[in-house]
Amino acid sequence: MSKEDVQEFYSNFKKASGKMQQALPEMVKGFGGLFAAVMKDGALDLKSKELIALAVGLAVRCTPCINLHVQKCLAAGATREEILDAAAVVVMMQGGPSFTYVPAVIEALEANEYDDYYDVEGACQKTC
Q1: pTM for the full model?
Q2: Does pLDDT of 114 surpass 80?
Q3: Range 102-114 burial, b when 16+ CB lie within 10 A, else e
Q4: Domains present along the chain, CATH in parentheses
């Protein structure tokens, strides 16, 4: 996927999510509740949880998961370096199959890099 493909994915995912909400409202409500309950500060902060979610998405080779969780990692304050370090841990644990998906992480990072969104350290300053 290119940077443009990732940006198109974000746009299309919003539309598809609306259709999913209409078709399966109870399922979406249940998943949304689970997501909200888990993805908040607890013993682990949100940034750590998003880095874990990204790592799992990369490990299972889920490109939509990679795209969405790179965006959420940035929104939670993760830097490009932290995201790529998490990707490196996945490659160390899983090897070649994950290695071939690291470019998807980089493309998602590049699709989310807008100068007015990030501070000097690369943390997202707006809704990403």
Answers
A1: 0.82
A2: no
A3: bebbbbbbebbee
A4: 3-117 (1.20.1290.10)
